[in-house]
C-alpha cells in the first residue's frame, strides 16, 4: 500500500501533465490516513491504484484529513482534469473530500464513491459518474454539471445542494436521493429522480426532457419554489383527457403543496407548447385530489393563429408592392421622344393599412400597417414601349387574434413582417391605350411573437405576375374616364419552421386576383405646373382556396385550415403635379372595404407619395 500523509505534519502533492503517473502497482493508495494530505491530479496526469483494481482510501482513521482534487484545488482556477484509476474512492473515519474543479466539457469518473466522502463540484466542466455511489458526506454543486452515467451513480445517502450556477443531470438513468436543495438546475432527460426526503426549491429549475420527479414515502415532501421547464416531451402534441400528463408524482404519503398552497412548482412562461396545443401545469388531478402535478392542454397554442395567418399577410404585402401602374409610377406620359431615348426613373414611399379576417379552424384575424418604399427606372424604351426594373421593401407589424381555449377573437400575439422585392415591368402605350406587364419576386422574413411563450422566426419567397390594360376616353377637353382591368397570379412558398415542441409546415395554394377599375381624371394648366387630379373606384376578386398549416410534434400532427379568397372595393383620390419639363410629383390616398368572401380584407386610410424624373 502507498501511504501519503499518514503521519502528523501533512502532505501536499500535485500530479500534473500528460504522462505523469502516481501509481501503486499491487495494492491500494491511502491518502491522509492519520495525518492530513491533499493530492491534486490535473492536466492529463494519472493516479492509479493497482491499475484500477484497488481503492483510493481517504482519511482512514479518526483525526485523518484527506482532499483529492480533480483539476484545481477549491479556490483556484479550474484546469484540465487528470485521470483516476481505482475501483473506489472511499472515505474513512476522518474527514474525506473529493473536489471536481476542472473545465473539461466531458470528463468521466468511473470509481465508486463510498464511505464518509463529501463531494464538491465547483469548476465549469461536466463530470459523469458511472460507479455505484453510496457515500454519506454532503454533495455541493456550485458550478458546472455533475451528471449520472449509470443508475444509482448519485448517492442516496448524501444530502445534495445545488448552487445557482450548478446542474445535477440525471440523464436517462434512474436515481434516488434523500434530500435536495435546488437553487440551480436539475435536468431529467428520461430518467426518474426519486426523493425519499425533502426536496426544497430555492428558486431553481426542474428541467424535464421526458423524465419525472417522484416523491416517495411519508417523509418525502416538496416545498419552496421551483421553475419547471419542459425541454422535450414525447407525450405532447395532442389534446389531453382526464387528469392530463403526470410529470411530478407523490406516493406513499408524500406531499407537494398540491393540496395547500399549490406553489412548490410553476411552469416556465406559464405555458408550454407541443404540436398545435398549449399546456399548463396543474396541482392535483382533474377532481382536485392527490399530490401529483399534471400538464393539461388548454386549446390551441398562440402560435397557431400567428402562423395560420402568415400566408395571407404576405399576400397583402405582395399586392401592396405590385399595386397598379398609376400607384407605382404616377400619371404616365402618352408620348415618348421620337428616337425612344427618353427614360424615366421613379420612386415612392407608401403606407397601407390592412385588416384581414379569415374563416377556418381558428378563424384568424390580423390588422396593422405596412410601410415601405419602391424605386425603379426604365432600362429600354422606344416609341411605344418602356421596360425596366424596380426594387422595394415593405415592413409591417400585425396584431393577430384567433379562436383559442373555446374563446373567439382571442389576442394571440403579433407578427413582425419584412419583405424585399425585385420586379421587372414592360409597358406598351399608344395614345390613351396602355398595356402593362409585371413580374415580381419577393423574399420574406417574419418573427412570430405569441402572447405567451417565446418568439420564433421563419422565411419564404413569392412570385407574382400581373397583366393590366387601361383605355382613356374623353369626357370634355379637361376630363377623361379611364376603365382598367388587371389580372394577377400569386405563388407563395414558406419554409418549414421549428418552434418549441413543434415543426410548422405551410402548404399554400396559388391564387388569382382580378381587379376591375375606373378613374375619372382631369388636366389643368398643361405643361410645367400641370395638375392631373383623379378619383378612382376599384373592385377586387380573389380566388377561393385553403391554406393548410401543419403543426407536427410529439404524438402526432394537427392541420390548421384557413380559407382565402374574397371581394373588396376601393375608393381612391390622387393627383400628379408637373414641377418642370422633367420632374413631377404624384400621390394617392385610398380606403378598402370588404365585400364578402372567406377572407375579408378592408382597411383604414392608406396612401403614398412619389417622384418621377425623366432622363
What's a quick, concise take on this entry?
The chain is mainly β and 615 residues long. 4% of the residues lie in helices and 61% in strands. The termini are far apart.
Task: Please provide a written account of the structure.
- A hairpin with a 6-residue loop joins β32 (about 345-360) and β33 (about 365-380).
- The mean pLDDT is about 90.
- The protein starts with a strand and ends with a strand.
- The chain is about 5% helix and about 60% strand.
- With about 625 residues, the protein is mainly β.
Can you tag this structure with a few keywords?
Lipocalin, mainly beta, twelve-stranded antiparallel β-barrel, about 625 residues
CATH fold description of the domain at 302-614? Lipocalin
Spans with pLDDT under 50 lasting ≥5 residues? none
Q: What is the first-to-last residue Cα distance? A: 97 Å
The helix tally amounts to 3
CATH superfamily of the domain at 302-614: Autotransporter beta-domain
User: Major sheet: size, sense and barrel closure?
Assistant: 16 strands, parallel
What overall geometry do the principal axes of the alpha carbons give? elongated
Which structural class fits the helix and strand makeup?
Answer: mainly beta
Task: Please provide the count of β strands.
Answer: 49
Strand content: over 45%
CATH class of the domain at 302-614: Mainly Beta
Portion of residues in helices? under 10%
The overall average pLDDT, rounded, is 92
In CATH, the architecture of the domain at 302-614 is Beta Barrel
C-alpha Rg (nearest Å): 36 Å
